[in-house]
Design a protein that fits this description.
Length: 272
């Protein structure tokens, strides 16, 4: 049976590892056309080979999502090769674990460039074509941290709050245009980004392919916002909405922030 997604073209940023890679591999099973972007060319080409082996037509483009010109060129290459862009998945991201008092304004700007403006660069490059065709899907991989912040991830949390707010408004403004916007809110995910951080049993990371399945399901069902996994993170979000003090207490009670296994408080993974 032919998949409804077969032949659709998707651009995935952060495709060299983590959620982006898992999403690319899953979409390859649907025989979709894939445009994969990441900074690490070697790892990106390995993902290209894996996705091509599953039957997809694939274009791998080393790119930095913080560079709007590179992202615009990425979209133009996708249109030139495949004719159109049906789906964008913004999954490039960076984590900086450092208490607020130890951060500089430059630290915030850097994280915002990757996690917030990196997503906007792709969205604004692809959106005009989608609006013209009155068809398309915009998927942004944010985080539950954008609903309830965890220390010491100050800059990361701020960037995810910005992403969530932007997507909340964009989704409403796109109503009736044929273009659908969805925010994916993962809890803890087992990716290179959190390597070296030990988390309590109740906050262990889920595999990236579980988030990837949620992304594909969100496209099929035109979901607006998806929390994955659902029960634990959703409980924290609701509790914090009811009482921020209660949310803070739950974070402390379950030690949700995790414990550094090394002395370096900075853990970075730019999947671009």
């Amino acid at each position: 049976m032919r998949s409804a997604l077969q032949g659709k073209t998707a651009i995935i940023t952060g495709a060299s590892s983590g959620i982006g890679k898992a999403t690319a591999l899953l979409m390859a099973r649907e025989k979709m056309n894939l445009v994969l972007a990441a900074r690490r060319a070697g790892e990106l080409n390995e993902v290209r080979r894996e996705t091509e082996a599953r039957g997809s037509r694939v274009l791998a483009c080393p790119a930095d999502v913080t560079d709007a010109e590179q992202v615009q060129a990425l979209v133009e290459k996708a249109v030139s090769l495949f004719g159109r862009v049906d789906i964008v998945v913004c999954s490039a991201g960076q984590l900086l674990r450092r208490p607020a008092v130890d951060l500089t304004i430059g630290d915030f700007r850097h994280i915002m460039e990757v996690n917030f403006y990196g997503s906007l660069n792709l969205i604004y490059a692809a959106l005009p074509g989608m609006l013209e065709r009155r068809s398309g899907h915009i998927i942004v991989v944010s985080s539950v941290d954008g609903k309830k912040g965890l220390p010491p991830d100050t800059a990361y949390v701020a960037s995810k709050c910005a992403v969530n707010g932007f997507m909340d408004v964009l989704r409403q403004e796109l109503r009736g245009t044929g273009v659908h916007a969805c925010t994916i809110l993962p809890g803890r995910v087992d990716t290179p980004m959190v390597k070296g951080i030990r988390f309590p049993l109740g906050s262990r990371g889920i595999p990236g392919d579980r988030v990837a399945r949620s992304i594909v399901r969100a496209i099929r069902k035109r979901r607006t916002e998806v929390v994955v996994p659902y029960i634990g993170p959703k409980t924290l979000i609701v509790a914090n909405s009811f009482s921020p003090r209660l949310g803070d207490w739950l974070v402390r009670l379950f030690k949700l922030e995790g414990v550094e296994e090394g002395s370096d408080m900075s853990h970075n993974d730019i999947g671009v």
